[in-house]
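Students often ask why inverse folding is considered easier than folding. One informal answer: many sequences map to the same fold, so there is more than one right answer. In these notes we will look at a single instance of the problem. The structure comes first.
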């Protein structure tokens, strides 16, 4: 937001200078015309100074405009680089979280927390299709992790009541359903396919 405000201020300044230069240019043109029409009554030093000021202002306007255009280009490039870095960081965090959940013995809490933190901001750095995929992946990973923990907790009990057996069966069914989803949508290749085209910098950078 600060960069946007800065560009707005620069643009406003440029517009004011251009307008000021135009007004002075018109005034200088009028002065030049007056010189031709009323050469015997003109204050030549005043006219000369007005023309010099008009020329100086026009040059200043041109320089200001050129600087403003350069700042816009730099700002766009910096934004593109920053966005690219954030996207790559989110991709790697999601990838690491997926690998831990699916193939790790335990899930590192820091890995999970970092991935969930970055994915929670995906709406701001990815198009909706990619951000929705990331959020769905995070939900499935968390569900898979919690269901596994629940299954391990109940299956390790020496005595199993009917309720416990039903809970274990529910966990098995849920894990089977999640496994099917991961095989189709929750692989590293699927993650790369969903985000890959957003992980490269524009060629203009």
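Output (designed amino acids):
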């Amino acid at each position: 937001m600060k960069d946007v405000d800065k560009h707005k201020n620069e643009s406003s300044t440029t517009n004011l200078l251009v307008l000021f230069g135009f007004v002075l240019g018109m005034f200088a043109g009028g002065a030049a015309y007056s010189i031709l029409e009323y050469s015997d009554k003109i204050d030549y030093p005043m006219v000369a100074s007005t023309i010099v000021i008009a020329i100086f202002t026009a040059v200043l306007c041109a320089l200001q405009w050129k600087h403003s255009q350069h700042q816009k280009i730099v700002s766009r490039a910096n934004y593109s680089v920053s966005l690219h870095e954030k996207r790559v960081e989110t991709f790697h965090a999601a990838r690491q979280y997926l690998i831990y959940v699916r193939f790790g013995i335990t899930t590192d809490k820091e890995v999970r927390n970092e991935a969930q933190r970055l994915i929670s901001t995906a709406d701001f750095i990815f198009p909706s299709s990619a951000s929705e995929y990331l959020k769905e992946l995070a939900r499935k990973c968390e569900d898979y992790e919690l269901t596994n923990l629940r299954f391990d907790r109940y299956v390790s009990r020496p005595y199993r009541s009917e309720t416990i057996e039903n809970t274990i069966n529910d966990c098995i069914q849920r894990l089977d359903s999640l496994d099917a989803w991961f095989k189709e949508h929750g692989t590293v290749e699927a993650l790369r396919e969903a985000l890959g085209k957003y992980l490269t910098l524009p060629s203009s950078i």
